[in-house]
């Protein structure tokens, strides 16, 4: 069957659609990209913000209108919370987040999965039949290890859409990573809704630590990266694992606000003091560590003074990169019914201020590495005059660019690279070897 897979939203959505891609290809189905006709369309939707929900609706409409004969399956968080709307937009099948795990079996059981092509395509470790858009860019694989969340942050619709926390078995994850290493992957990113809670639902409070140690012991994966970790899940001794150089020195710790009062209204289980202590402990233990974060501006009731407090604390934490979000009212969350919802222009102005700070912090962090030589995993290239402009990432998630002659292939190679200067959005690199 010709299958088109699309996904928007978080790394978990990407990891789910990539796993589906690998499973479909291993069954001999052919993945097609944008502009190619498919028999089956699967869209993994998102509803984390109002704009994300709007985009989900747009994509469903486009897929339906563009392919009236094909089967359209919609899953993901927008489908979970707005199933009827998805049906009205023309989906043939709406699959909720719990059923998504077994989507292929479900399609087969409903007779929606036809015979695979007689000559199965060759498994291309980095391209999966070279469909454009899907996984072609990734030389690293997002591995879903956990789903759901038991916390109740007051702004968060994810915990509503994805349900209670649940962990995948360690053995299953090891098998998947070993298969990816065999297929040539250099890096895997452990992903979850609440990654730090991995194993707790099975009675293992040190579940994530155990999982990381098992991956490092039982696979030859060159680079292991962790996606978002809630700060309250970590203790200082957690960072001792970074003595192992395959565990990459990058932590994404969502702070959401740097103001105590706002954190309390958000239902976030951290404080300025706790967060600051954790950051100090991590920096004291992990060399070249980059700490990135999520910051929300315009949360209900956020006064000018609270925002100024948040800005000041974010500056003090000297993050390597900020992911900035304007508060988005989500029906079904506690924050949606809070008083003092702020007007959009206020949130826009605060977002502008936070971005200015974020740009400065990012430049400061990158500047520290000019003159160093670091291993870079090269990922993508684009033509640049008579040369190719490559981009890749260091272990601590610094984006690096370099240029080569067109016949030089750097894709998916880890090469020691001199970091010789700053460009507007990256570090400029000089290869130590080709
Ligand atoms: S920890 Fe909070 S923000 Fe994160 S998924 Fe759970 S409820 Fe949402």
Describe the structure.
33% of the residues lie in helices and 23% in strands. It has 434 residues and is α/β, with parallel strands linked by helices. The protein has 13 helices and 18 strands. The strands form 5 sheets. A 5-stranded parallel beta sheet has the order 2-1-3-4-5, with helices on both faces. Strands 14-15-16-18-17 form a 5-stranded mixed beta barrel. It has a 3-stranded parallel beta sheet with strand order 6-9-10. It is globular. The longest helix has 24 residues, at 344-367. Helix 8 packs parallel to helix 9 (207-218). The chain has helices at residues 11-26, 50-66, 77-81, 83-88, 97-100, 103-109, 158-162, 170-182, 207-218, 260-266, 272-285, 304-317, 344-367, and strands spanning 2-7, 30-31, 40-45, 71-76, 93-95, 140-144, 146-147, 166-167, 187-191, 223-226, 250-252, 290-297, 321-326, 373-384, 387-394, 399-404, 414-423, 426-431. A hairpin with a 2-residue loop joins strand 14 (373-384) and strand 15 (387-394). It folds into 4 domains: 2-109, Methylthiotransferase, N-terminal domain (Rossmann fold), CATH 3.40.50.12160; 139-227, Transcription Regulator spoIIAA; 252-368, Transcription Regulator spoIIAA (2-Layer Sandwich), CATH 3.30.750.200; 373-431. The structure holds iron/sulfur cluster. Iron/sulfur cluster (SF4) is lined by residues 149, 151-153, 156, 158-159, 193-194, 230.
